Structure formats: C-alpha cells, structure tokens
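Moderator note: this is an archived Q&A kept for reference. The question asked for a predicted structure of one protein chain; the sequence and the answer are reproduced below.
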Amino acid sequence: MRLAAWPITLDPIFSGLAWALIFGLFVSTVFTRVVITVVYYMVYGYRVTE
C-alpha cells in the first residue's frame, strides 16, 4: 500500500494526502509491532526453559 501511494506524491494537489498515507501506514505498522511485542512480554514475561 505504501508503494501504491508513491506516484501520487508527484501530483501537486494530492501530494500531501499521499505523504500522509505513506507515513501514517509506516508509523502505524512500527507502533503496532512495538506495542504487541511489549504487551506480550509484559503479560507472559521472558521465560527461559531449563
């Protein structure tokens, strides 16, 4: 999806929308991966099996 919005960045009218889509998707993906990982370790903790 991020690459699909890339050609729109050259359009003078819709370039702001394209950049908002690109960075919004990027930030939400990174945020989701970090939040899911942190919550997982908060709930289950780091368990080492012996």
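Archived answer notes: The radius of gyration is 18 Å.
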